[in-house]
Write the structure tokens for this entry.
Amino acid sequence: MFFVYPALDVRNGHVVRLQQGDYAQETRYAGLPLDVADRYADAGAAWLHLVDLDAARVGGYTLIPLLRALKAGTGLRIQTGGGVRNQGDVEAILAAGADRVVVGSLAVRSPGLVMGWLQRFGSERVTVALDARLSADGCWQLPTAGWTQDSGVQLEPLLRRYADAGLQHLLCTDIDRDGMLGGPNLDLYRHIRALAPGVKLQASGGLRDVADIAAAREAGCAGAILGKTLLDGRLALADALAEQRGC
């Protein structure tokens, strides 16, 4: 089944979007995060993708109160992350009502630990985010700490390890396309699907319209994360959800 995930990136209590992960290139949007999520729920969304940008660089997930309010007030299923650094963070986020915890930097730096969480919490409760940037020599590198640090780790060998460990949900952003509304990197997603055909892949970065959503699905993705295009009003969530249903 294919799902559309409207995204809320939260920084200092505000809904924001960054360009290519650059914290100096921030656009702040009107409306409190809970109000924006309410609109998405009213439009018929089933899922919300919630990111703690304050914690993404330094660790220590800070959105537990917001997560509880979202779960109590919207009825949305929520996958959320940003700053997840230890098992206590995972336990606290799940206890606050999250349906899936997104693990990014730690999934790159300490894959053995995160693979253990797939067993401990179940592969349906953990989404691994392997966000990638194409290097000058043509390799897909995996920056960490809010995409601000070079990990020295490449996508392909790490993805194979996770697939062998039973990973079910993978989120992959082409960092250079994030917030740019230039379309998704379909070649990257086809590459990932060939490497790990059993993993459910969520496309993120650059999606603009229903044609991009359809293209991501045709490339084998199981979901599409929509941020800037919804917040800017370029794409109506109702239209995106109609494409999700194959209408």
Notes: The chain has one domain: 3-244. The mean pLDDT is 94. Residues 64-74 form the longest helix (11 residues). Residues 3-244 form a domain with the TIM Barrel fold (CATH 3.20.20.70).
